[in-house]
């Protein structure tokens, strides 16, 4: 019988990418991790590389752990922050307990006025010591993630209609889809569906089920086109 106290080796694959919306944006996102036995300490850090004060930025730290049986558990933390000149700040922390044959991916996003400024991500894979294998990012592909940033009932309704249609469409994509909402004139709001900093569709809310479902259909069609373009771009980069 195999001992339950076998020491685990944690393979950490870091995939770090930084995006800038304009040449003036100098805020960077960074995930710092510390391994102690089966516990991973995650710190989400923002760095101001400029001499001026920066404010009204937002962050999202999102983790998704895949268990041995294929079940998923998630944790989401978000907030707003400001930075003094050349300041580095820990925005939030996360502790992840990971067992043998479990995998976890952590995403960290920094945005300004809804636009993606910088992001970082890390993949954590646990295996028994002695299992010497190379972990590729493609081996940890999680599909169908939708993040809810809706603020009104109409926004939540659109999210529900979209998610139901998305699940039965047979096209769950490996990128994160975010549904956001911001106030508009009167009782209306503006609903946006985006992938990273790419806006897929945006429209004014309206208390009409068929109207909302019409935009769900349009969003799914545009996501399909976006995915095809993304695959072609990825293929060209690998040539």
Automatic annotation (TrEMBL):
It comes from the Bacteria. Keywords: Signal. May be involved in the biogenesis of curli organelles. InterPro entries: Curli_assembly_CsgC/AgfC, Curli_CsgE. It comes from Lutibacter profundi. The keyword Signal applies. The keyword Signal applies. This is Curli production assembly/transport component CsgE.
């Amino acid at each position: 019988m195999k001992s339950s106290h076998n020491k685990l080796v944690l393979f950490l694959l870091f995939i770090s990418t930084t995006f800038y919306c304009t040449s003036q944006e100098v805020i960077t996102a960074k995930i710092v991790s510390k391994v102690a036995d089966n516990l991973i300490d995650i710190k989400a850090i923002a760095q101001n590389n400029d001499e001026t004060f920066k404010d009204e930025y937002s962050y999202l730290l999102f983790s998704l752990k895949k268990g041995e049986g294929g079940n998923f558990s998630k944790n989401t933390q978000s907030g707003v922050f400001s930075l003094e000149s050349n300041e580095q700040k820990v925005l939030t922390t996360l502790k992840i307990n990971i067992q043998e044959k479990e995998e976890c991916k952590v995403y960290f996003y920094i945005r300004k006025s809804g636009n993606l400024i910088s992001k970082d991500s890390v993949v954590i894979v646990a295996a028994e010591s002695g299992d010497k294998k190379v972990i590729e990012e493609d081996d940890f592909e999680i599909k169908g993630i939708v993040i809810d940033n809706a603020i009104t009932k109409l926004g939540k309704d659109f999210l529900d209609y979209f998610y139901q249609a998305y699940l039965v469409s047979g096209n769950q994509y490996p990128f994160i889809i975010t549904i956001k909402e911001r106030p508009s004139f009167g009782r209306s709001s503006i609903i946006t569906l985006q992938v990273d900093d790419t806006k897929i569709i945006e429209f004014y809310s309206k208390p009409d089920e068929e109207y909302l479902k019409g935009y769900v259909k349009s969003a799914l069609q545009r996501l399909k086109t976006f995915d095809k373009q993304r695959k072609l771009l990825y293929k060209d980069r690998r040539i």
